[in-house]
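Design request, tokens follow.
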């Protein structure tokens, strides 16, 4: 095990499209956003804090990149109808829309934040980070998502946005 806390053969790389770190195994060519099995989480946390906390911020002006979080609810017609929560998502588009509509009401009423709800209810792997997708620019996300995110003011949340991935609520963070 290295000083990063990752298992042998694994390393940390930076995503060119998202500007955030990910994990890569040279021997298997496997990559993932989540730390691989066998990671010493305390060592990894210390390593990330010491080496990556500043590099996650964008190097481009704010007008070119924004930061957003989202809560995604997939359905059977989503481009990849599976998630960390469910191996096979079978709900209809209507059911997904109703679920996200209920989440939207809870967030807008102040009952819960998008970040807190995303941790347990989002079908995206960003759920572990409260839905935070990091910094991204034009062309990095699906067009419908990008258009909605760039139209928001910092701190503002979108209405429900449909993409090929499913239904989203988007909150602009930066």
């Amino acid at each position: 095990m290295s000083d990063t806390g990752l298992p042998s053969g694994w390393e940390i790389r930076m995503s060119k499209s998202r500007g955030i770190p990910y994990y890569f195994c040279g021997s298997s060519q496997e990559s993932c956003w989540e730390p691989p099995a066998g990671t010493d989480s305390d060592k990894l946390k210390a390593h990330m804090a010491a080496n990556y906390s500043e590099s996650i911020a964008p190097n481009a002006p704010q007008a070119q990149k924004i930061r957003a979080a989202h809560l995604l609810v997939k359905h059977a017609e989503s481009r990849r109808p599976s998630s960390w929560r469910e191996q096979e998502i079978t709900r209809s588009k209507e059911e997904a829309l109703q679920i996200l509509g209920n989440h939207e009401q809870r967030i807008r009423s102040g009952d819960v934040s998008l970040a807190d709800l995303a941790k347990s209810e989002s079908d995206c792997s960003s759920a572990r980070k409260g839905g935070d997708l990091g910094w991204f620019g034009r062309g990095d996300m699906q067009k419908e998502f990008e258009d909605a995110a760039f139209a928001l003011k910092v701190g503002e949340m979108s209405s429900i946005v449909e993409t090929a991935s499913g239904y989203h609520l988007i909150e602009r963070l930066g």
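Comment from the thread starter after seeing the answer: thanks! The helical segments are 41-51, 93-108, 114-121, 143-151.
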